[in-house]
NnrT protein (Paracoccus angustae), 75 residues
Amino acid sequence: MDDRWPVWRLALLLYVFAAAAVAINLFMLGLMGQALGLAALPPALALALSVPLGIPAAWLAGRWIRGLLDQAAQD
């Protein structure tokens, strides 16, 4: 029996952390955009945008962790 965690389960566990990282990065990108004359991105908007954008980020993090676990199992 294969007892490996699937990518979707890892992504589900990592979603909160990935969405938080996306929110922080969006907010910081909005602050850097002020140097170019753009309006600042409010924190609430960064959080709202991070909800859907956290899904692909969590999926990629899950794939990365799955690869690390596979590599550790080979060694």
Notes: Helices lie at 7-33, 43-74. DSSP finds two helices and no strands in the chain.
